[in-house]
Specification:
Distance between the termini: 35 Å
Keywords: Glycosyltransferase, Golgi apparatus, Signal-anchor, Transferase, Transmembrane
Subcellular location: Golgi apparatus membrane
Number of strands: 27
Pfam families: Exostosin_GT47
Membrane topology: Single-pass type II membrane protein
Number of helices: 39
Protein name: Exostosin GT47 domain-containing protein
Strand content: 5-15%
Oligomer: single chain
Shape: elongated
Largest sheet: 5 strands, parallel
Strand order of the largest sheet: 3-4-5-6-7
């Protein structure tokens, strides 16, 4: 059970006026209280002051100034501020009005004078990154096993594995959720605390569980009762707890009107002296492994002198007044009223029902709150800024209602930098707006406060409303959702629960102690690069040996052994079997050097053989694969491994690329017309000057920035264990290929794979999943889904409808097949028919309206990425499947364009796609915050359709649970067979007539065996050209279609006249030629390892295509010729029959491409439940 945190803690006693506020639904009366004569004994004041207040003026008590005297203005006007600043009042401008600029400057000066020096939030971040100051780090005078455990834990935390899915933690709330989780786990498994028994009640061992300072009491109570963390033997402890109450200390020992805290300081000094004499542990570390938890305002001051070396867990965490970031811990101020019903009234209204922009109510403590009321009390209808409110039941209810109904809750400092409103805001799910310079927010070392709170400088109070209004609505939605997620870390429970407030405080103490740990003897020297310079410096060798002695020598021995092992391994793995000889050859070596990166945006590449002197070779060796003594082995393959510098003439302007888009796609423009000739410098350059992937217009029709070095290159180990595959198309005639040629190609692929893996350039995959294994994976997925036992109690009505449909699909019987369907091209035509019928009868899709153009709701209907645009257009305009009420939907569509996302947010040549991924993350979090549907299933009933190459990268982390309909369907980069959907890449030339030029010649008139023309994108196409370009009249294999050829027969005519159309992968596994071949009724020959063909879950691709492994390119013609003529006729018939499933229509027709994509998404969802 948790403790309820409710109401306002700064409330007075005397009711003086009542005002009604119509903004609340029940028109509850809001009660003002102005306490004119009362001072609190529990605030930082040295004498009683009678404060005169008026209803019409903001007034109250101003906090203690730098000298300890209380400043108390009766009216905080500009003249009063001038008096504080010792300025002459009444200064006016020429028009007789106060200058707004001068006023702002005065406010800033006033705040600065009252507050003192300031440390900005960014400076706090920097201090945290630098670690605790060296002066605060105390290493034990003798070795302790507990210290070694902490050092070991520190290393484990530092090397914590990256979490992909922390189920019980919400990653955006943390600076590093992986480090936090590992640290928390180690705390639970390792940490032991000894609580000193010394000290008499009530100051010691008597926790107060109610009131403003209850945090220190609840922690004391729970830790002293903890059997998990507490130990009775101090020798087993990692930390030592000093269990005193700072509030009881003040109330017991502070003499009224004494104006002195020396009694409190002396009492704690005597206590520490007792601990030092009785135990040896304080003296061993100087108190660095001791800690206390204190929430009173005075705690920093009374513990500053004699307990500064301890880990101080303080509520008044003022970075400018001695709070040590990285060592001390900021504790949340929790005003606890009752422990009987801790979670009563927790939560608030959904974000859509919070109509108040900002809310604050409280007593006028300190110098800041009068400023807040002066500028914003009764100044704007959406800014509910009040003074104190009544403490009775009605007043508390009104306060809570305002908290629950406001978007932002103002958390303005009082006498100290801390305020209980921060935790109250989180409790009522209101985004906290912290206005308190120098305040270090709770758990600063682990939480990312900027993810769920707003921080405003005190001097910006006059601009408060504009700052809040400048926050976009979607950003607010995300922040409010995060407030709800962080709530569990700020709640007390009678019996502590995982990640609750007790554990979070304890973890921060543990974490800060861990950060202080250093190696025992040489901690001063083992820091940064200087440590290694010192170790290997003869100048300091003597001092180093004296300092480090045994352990230092052990470190040197370990470093030496590692270095020796590394050199031995290098001698084995460097080329030619002789590391030194390869690095320092006696003579120049003639080598064949080719670039692993097709360079620039060009159709012409350089192949040079160059003499390289030994120094150049040694420098170059680490960044490229060098082939010696192989006569032109890689001629035309991968364009070598040479680092080449490209002159400016090599680049094609984006405007030229776009204007020639359609013509280039048909290869009707000659090489000279479509691209500029390249000028290549064959000299060796620095590795960082290596050319990027070439960007040339072709049938893919991409802009120069669309397929670049950023192409996904991560390969998983999923797939064939042997690293290769003999995919469909291998026949007995393959024996005709000399084994030497097969070995040659295998070596080429290995070379390219090795080189590209160094440069993250998406080379050949490390493993291959053949089509047979894909079929097996899909079958296993279906079997697993069929055998799954549904948990009906957790299913909503829509899910039960899907589950019922699943049963009907599984049990579908062979009936009359629709005449429009051709059974051989399907895996199971009866199952497909039944599934399609149920989709038409049942499926409802809700399309999210959120998101702005052009990324959302603006479909692209022409070009390479038109598939996602056409689906978006037809889905949003559909009346049959689209559902306006999300509660009635089975699926939820996120209508963004991956192409527009790249075009709008990616900075050309930046090689940084983090902004794109962040945009997707923010959108997902906004959806999750605004609607309940994502969180209900964690996104499994959501889907998107994306055709850009980068879509897997942009969506892998944050939309991983969704159904991803992707053109780049690569099993090695996370495509999940059975759950994700392979989307056909359709190149649309004419948006008004997408069926233009459809069809081709009959089989008897197709006289060309195989045809390919296109740019040399990726590593595979150069290999295809090397083996088949101009090598055989039956094999029409070209790069860009030469003008001499295109004048006789253009690209489309070649497609219509060829038996087989070669579809090799480009930069990624997908290629528009697959659909082009079907469009022109040519049998597609897919050469792309790990590519999952479109609609894989329903279509039998072996019935209308040929799939060839990449390594079989040298034997390509033999594979095609080995197909009997009758088999080819069947394949070509299958192409003509399946064509209807790959066509777009302005108005969708049955079984067309729109319905096929939607069916695959439906089918995927059906077999997830």
């Amino acid at each position: 059970m948790g403790l309820r945190i409710e109401g306002n803690v700064d409330i007075g006693k005397d009711l003086t006026s009542t005002t009604k506020f119509s903004s609340l639904e029940n028109s509850v009366e809001q009660l003002y209280i102005f306490d004119n004569t009362t001072t609190q004994a529990n605030v930082d004041t040295w004498k009683d002051v009678e404060v005169s207040t008026k209803l019409s003026n903001v007034s109250g008590q101003i906090s203690v100034n730098n000298e300890g005297a209380l400043v108390s203005p009766s009216s905080l006007s500009i003249n009063r501020i001038k008096q504080v600043l010792e300025l002459e009042p009444g200064i006016v401008n020429r028009d007789g009005e106060e200058s707004l600029r001068n006023e702002s400057l005065m406010i800033e000066r006033y705040v600065r004078k009252m507050r003192g020096s300031t440390i900005t939030f960014s400076e706090m971040e920097s201090i945290l990154l630098e670690g605790p100051p060296a002066s605060t780090i105390s290493v034990g005078r003798w070795s302790a096993a507990r210290d070694r455990e902490l050092v070991s834990a520190k290393l484990q935390i530092k090397n914590a594995p990256i979490l992909r899915n922390a189920v019980d933690l919400y990653a955006p709330l943390f600076r590093n959720v992986s480090l936090f989780k590992r640290s928390y786990e180690l705390m639970e498994s390792i940490l032991k605390i000894y609580t000193y028994k010394e000290g008499e009640k009530p100051i010691f061992h008597q926790p107060k569980l109610r009131g403003l300072y209850a945090a220190e009491g609840w922690f004391m109570k729970l830790l002293e009762r903890s059997k998990h963390f507490s130990v009775r033997d101090p020798k087993r402890a990692h930390l030592f707890y000093l269990p005193f109450s700072s509030e009881t200390l003040r109330s017991t020992l502070y003499g009224e009107d004494s104006h002195s805290m020396k009694n409190l300081e002396r009492y704690l000094t005597d206590y520490v002296t007792l601990i030092k004499k009785k135990y040896r542990f304080w003296n061993r570390t100087g108190g660095a492994d001791h800690f206390f938890v204190a929430c009173h305002d005075w705690a920093p001051r009374i513990t500053k002198e004699h307990m500064s070396s301890c880990i101080r867990a303080l509520c008044n965490a003022n970075a400018a007044r001695g709070f040590s970031i990285g060592k001390d811990v900021s504790v949340p101020v929790t005003y606890v009223r009752s422990g009987n019903d801790p979670l009563r009234d927790i939560g608030g209204k959904p974000s859509s029902e919070r109509h108040i922009l900002a809310f604050f109510a409280g007593r006028i403590h300190g110098y800041l709150r009068p400023l807040l009321l002066k500028y914003w009390e009764n100044k704007a209808s959406d800014m509910k800024i009040f003074g104190p409110m009544q403490r009775d039941v009605q007043g508390k209810a009104v306060y809570r209602e305002f908290m629950k109904s406001s978007k932002y809750c103002i958390c303005a400092r009082g006498y100290g930098v801390h305020t209980p409103r921060v935790v109250e805001s989180i409790f009522y799910e209101c985004v906290p707006v912290v206005i308190s310079d120098n305040y270090v927010p709770p758990f600063f070392e682990v939480l990312d406060w900027e993810a769920f709170a707003v921080f405003i400088e005190e001097k910006d109070i006059p601009n408060l409303r504009n700052i809040l209004l400048s926050i976009p609505e979607d950003r607010y939605q995300v922040m409010q959702m995060r407030v709800k997620m962080v709530q569990k870390h700020f709640v007390w429970h009678k019996v502590p629960e995982k990640y609750d407030l007790f554990h979070m405080i304890l973890h921060s103490i543990w974490y800060n102690r861990i950060s202080q740990m250093r190696p025992k003897h040489c901690h001063k020297f083992f820091k940064g690069e200087w440590a290694f310079k010192l170790i290997f410096s003869s100048k300091f060798s003597v001092q180093f040996q004296k300092l480090c002695q045994i352990e230092g020598r052990r470190y040197i021995l370990i470093v030496g052994m590692v270095a020796l092992t590394y050199l031995m391994l290098q001698s084995l793995v460097l080329p030619y079997g002789d590391a030194l000889k390869s690095l320092f050859p006696d003579n120049k070596v003639m080598i064949s050097v080719k670039s692993g990166f097709p360079s620039g945006r060009s159709s012409v590449e350089s192949e040079n053989e160059s003499e390289i002197d030994p120094s150049t070779l040694a420098r170059y060796q680490s960044n490229a694969d060098i082939f010696v003594g192989r006569d032109n082995l890689l001629d035309d393959v991968a364009r070598g491994i040479q680092d080449i510098s490209i002159t400016s003439e090599r680049y094609i302007q984006d405007e030229t690329l776009r204007s020639s888009e359609d013509n280039n796609s048909e290869n009707e423009i000659s090489t000279q017309e479509s691209v500029d000739l390249l000028t290549v410098d064959s000299s060796i350059t620095k590795p960082e000057d290596a050319g990027h992937i070439e960007q040339i217009i072709g049938p893919e029709l991409q802009d120069s920035s669309e397929r670049s070095l950023e192409s996904n290159s991560n390969s998983s180990s999923d797939g064939n264990e042997n690293g290769g595959s003999w995919i469909q198309g291998k026949s007995e005639s393959m024996e005709e290929l000399p084994e030497s040629d097969l070995s040659l190609l295998s070596n080429e692929l290995d070379m390219i794979r090795t080189h590209c893996s160094k440069f993250r350039d998406g080379g050949p995959p490390k493993s291959v999943t053949p089509i047979e294994k894909m079929n097996k994976i899909f079958a296993q997925h279906l079997v697993s889904s069929i055998n799954m036992k549904p948990q009906w109690s957790f299913l909503r009505d829509r899910d039960k409808e899907i589950l019922a449909a699943k049963s009907e699909i599984i049990n579908s019987s062979a009936s009359d097949v629709d005449k429009e369907l051709y059974a051989p091209v399907f895996r199971n035509v009866s199952m497909f028919m039944r599934s399609y019928e149920l989709m038409e009868q049942t499926l409802k899709v809700y399309v999210y309206r959120d998101g702005k153009r052009p990324i959302f709701h603006q479909p692209i209907l022409k070009g390479l990425y038109a598939s996602e645009g056409w689906f978006m257009k037809l889905m949003e305009g559909n009346k049959h499947f689209a559902e306006k009420k999300p509660e009635r939907a089975h699926l939820f569509y996120m209508p963004f364009s991956s192409r527009e996302l790249q075009h709008s947010l990616y900075i050309p040549d930046s090689h940084n796609r983090t902004g794109l991924r962040q945009f997707v993350k923010d959108y997902k979090e906004m959806i999750a915050a605004k609607y309940p549907f994502w969180n209900r299933t964690r996104g499994t009933d959501h889907f998107f359709v994306a055709c850009h190459d980068w879509a897997p990268f942009e969506t892998t982390e944050h939309l991983e649970n969704s159904i991803k309909a992707l053109c780049n369907a690569d099993v090695t980069i996370g495509f999940r067979i059975g759950r994700d959907v392979s989307l056909p890449e359709t190149f649309i030339r004419y948006a008004r007539n997408p069926l233009r030029y459809r069809g081709g010649k009959p089989p008897s008139e197709r006289n060309i065996l195989a045809f390919y023309a296109g740019n040399s994108h990726g590593y595979l196409r150069p290999i295809l050209l090397k083996h088949w370009k101009d090598k055989d009249p039956d094999m029409r294999i070209y790069g860009l279609l030469p003008s001499s050829v295109s004048r006789r027969m253009n690209y489309i005519q070649h497609m219509k006249s060829s038996k087989y159309c070669i579809c090799p992968k480009g930069f990624e596994v997908n290629s528009p030629r697959v659909v082009e071949a079907i469009f022109y009724e040519c049998v597609p020959v897919i050469i792309s390892d790990n590519f999952v063909p479109p609609f894989f879950e329903v279509l039998n691709w072996e019935a209308f295509s040929v799939i060839v492994a990449e390594r079989d390119i040298p034997n390509l013609k033999n594979i095609l010729l080995s197909t009997p003529e009758e088999k080819y006729i069947e394949l070509q018939l299958g192409v003509r029959k399946v064509q209807q499933h790959f066509l777009w229509h302005a108005r969708p027709v049955k079984y067309d491409l729109f319905h096929m994509i939607l069916h695959s998404i439906w089918f995927s969802r059906v077999f997830q439940i």
